[in-house]
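Worked problem 6 (solution included).
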Amino acid sequence: CLKVVYSSNCPALPSGLEGKSFSRVFGNNASLTELFLVKRRIMGPCWIQISAGSFNASTTLNKLSWCTREVRVQTGTKGISVVPADATPPLPPLSIMSLSIKTNTTKQTKASTGKGRSTAAAPQHQQHEIAVAAYYHNPNLDVDEANEECLRRGMQTFMAVTKIEGVTFPKGPLAKNIVVESSERALLNHLAAMVTRADPDIILGHNIFGFGLDILAQRMQHHKLPAWHKFSRLKRPTGYLPFGHAGKKRDGRGNTGGGSLWLGRSLTAGRLVCDTYLSAREYLRLTTYDLGSLSLKLLKTARAPVALDSLVKFYEDPRALSALAEHTLTDAVLQLRVGWALQVLSLTRQLTNLAGNLWSHSLQNKRAERNEILLVHEFH
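Solution. The predicted structure is:
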C-alpha cells in the first residue's frame, strides 16, 4: 500500500482508476472536511487549540468571512489539535434565531410566441412574494438546558411588513415595533442586515429547508440583491448567485425536493440550520407534521392557521395587518419551543460527538453518513 499526496487544486481522480503499477485507489472521493476531521481526530463539536506561530489574524481588507474575528492557519492542519478532556472548558453558549415568513401567492402565466404561430398561454404557476418576516433571537443560549424558561432570557424580536404591488396599504399606524418597508427588496435588505448584526450560530425554522430558505433565495435572486450572502458567514464574489434550484417546481406541501437542502446550505454557510419539520419526522410518528399539529401535541398550545391565498385580506385594516405580523412572530416562538421540546440541538450534538461527523449533517438526519464517518474514524 502506497500513500500519495494529491493536491486539492487538481481534478478528482475517476472512480475505478487502475494502472500498470496499481490496481485500486482509495480515498479519492474523500472531502477536505472529512480528511481534516479524521486526521486531527475531531469527534464532533469540541474545543480545539492552534499552536502558537501557526496562524495570523486576517485584516479587514482581506477577510473571507463576515465573522468578527478571523484567523488563517499557515502551517496546514499539523498545528491544530483537540483540547485534552481534562483541560476542556465548559461548552460555550450559542446564539439562535428562529425565523418565520409569510408569503403572498400570485398566479403567473407565461406566454410563448413563434413566427407564423398564434400566441399560446402556458399553464399558470404560483409565485411566492414575501409580505411579512419576523424572528425571535436569543443571543446567549445553552443548548443542553432542558428548561424552556431559558428561551426567554435576553430575547430579541423583529417584525417587518412590506407593501404588496397592486394592494392598497391600510391607512393608520400599525402596532408598536412593526417595521414597514416600501418594497419586498427593501424588506430583504433589512432582514439580511439584521441577521448580520445578530450573527446567529443557529437558524431555526419549520420546513425551513423545504420552503423558507428556498423562498428567500428565490426572491433574492429575483431582485438580484448583491448582499444576499450576509445571511451566511461566508463572503461571496460579486455576481456569484448559487441559486440553481431557485424557482424549482414545488409539490403540494411547498417542497422543492433535494435541491432545497443545497439552497439552505448555500444561503446559510457557516451557520447551523435546524428544521423542526425534518426533526419531527425523525423523532415522532404522526400523521401530519405541520406546526399547528406539533404545537398542540408537544406544547398543548393551539395555533390559528393563516391561508396564504387570502393574505391580502389582512391589508384591509391596520389592526388586521398588525395581527398578521404578530402571528408570524408567534410562529417563530412556537418553532423554537417545538425544537426545544424535541431536544433537537442537544440530541444531534451528542450523536455528532459519538460519530465524529458534522453537526450540520446530523441536523439533516444523515444516518448513513454518520455511520460511515464513525467507521472511518475507527479504522483510520
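Discussion: The CA atoms of residues 104 and 129 lie 5 Å apart.
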